[in-house]
Design goal:
Bound molecules: zinc ion
Largest sheet: 7 strands, mixed, barrel
Structural class: alpha/beta
CATH superfamily of the largest domain: Putative cyclase
Helix content: 25-40%
Shape: globular
CATH architecture of the largest domain: 3-Layer(bba) Sandwich
Radius of gyration: 23 Å
Length: 281
């Protein structure tokens, strides 16, 4: 910023300024202040489920573990709180780093930040998923979005809205079973992205990342996790158990999805938020 300002000032000095014209530096500062005001006043939506004892994890994982510290007033008069938590990488709202299903894929700390921020497009498949709780989003669903909006799915974060986030409070309705352990995996039932659609995105489009409001980008009955494999091999980060997608427009929202930066991690807890576009965007 300082370098930018210095450059503007030099240009201003070199060109001189006509009588009565506002100094360039003042114009720049006004523009910057207006921008800052706009960003601070825009409406932000939290797309993250909270982490607590009810948070949904894969049936083979332990849930979120939270250990309260000795929280309270201290003999010195100030209040002090510090707790401990432990968590699997993959549970609640979280990132799948490409390493999750690809030995050569990026680990959580190696994903370029550019893949974790950007414009979100929302592909609404709630009707299809209401009719078939194990629905797989097809290439045709993605092409239909493109046709409707007259643009390609390029340079965007694709968010698949299945409507499953409304079931979050009910583990059995969300996962298809409320059992835990390896035998529960065969009973999982929720929508996902078809491996064909994942392949189409990797081969024919260039997206920053993809997210879904279910427990996995592959639908519940999947046994070979084809969409994970394809997306991770293509170094496309995946966001799972995303919340509140019904609050987003089909396009134009700006998403920031920052996971915990676990060195060498295959994923991690994710805080994902979106700024809604306003009339002047
Ligand atoms: Zn995962």
């Amino acid at each position: 910023m300082e370098r930018f300002k210095a450059g503007v000032i030099l240009t201003f000095l070199a060109c001189g300024v006509a009588a009565g014209q506002a100094p360039v530096t003042a114009v720049v500062e006004r523009a910057t202040a207006a921008q800052a005001r706009k960003w601070s006043q825009g409406r932000w939506i939290d797309l993250t489920h909270p982490f607590d004892e009810k948070t949904i994890y894969w049936p083979t994982e332990k849930g979120f573990r939270f250990e309260q510290g000795m929280n309270g007033p201290t003999p010195k008069g100030y209040y002090y709180a510090a707790n401990r938590f432990a968590s699997a990488e993959h549970g609640g709202t979280h990132l799948d780093a490409p390493r999750h299903f690809s030995a050569a894929g990026q680990t959580a700390d190696a994903i370029p930040v550019e893949h974790l921020v950007g414009e979100a497009v929302v592909v609404d498949v709630t009707k299809q998923c209401a009719a078939d709780p194990a629905y797989e989003v097809t290439p045709d669903d993605l092409v239909a979005w493109e046709t409707r909006h007259g643009r390609q799915l390029v340079d965007v974060i694709v968010l698949l809205r299945t409507g499953w986030a409304t079931r979050w409070e009910d583990r059995a309705a969300y996962l298809g079973t409320d059992q835990v352990g390896p035998e529960a995996v065969a009973k999982l039932r929720f929508p996902g992205l078809s491996p064909l659609a994942a392949q189409w995105l990797v081969d024919h489009r260039r997206i920053r990342a993809i997210g879904i409001d279910t427990a996995s980008i592959d639908h519940g009955p999947s046994t070979h996790f084809g969409s994970h494999v394809v997306l991770c091999t293509g170094n496309v980060p995946i966001f799972e158990n995303v919340a509140t997608l019904d609050a987003l427009p089909d396009q134009g929202a700006f998403v920031i999805a920052l996971p915990m930066k676990i060195a060498g991690g295959s994923g991690g807890p994710l805080r994902i938020v979106a700024r809604l576009p306003d009339a002047t965007d």
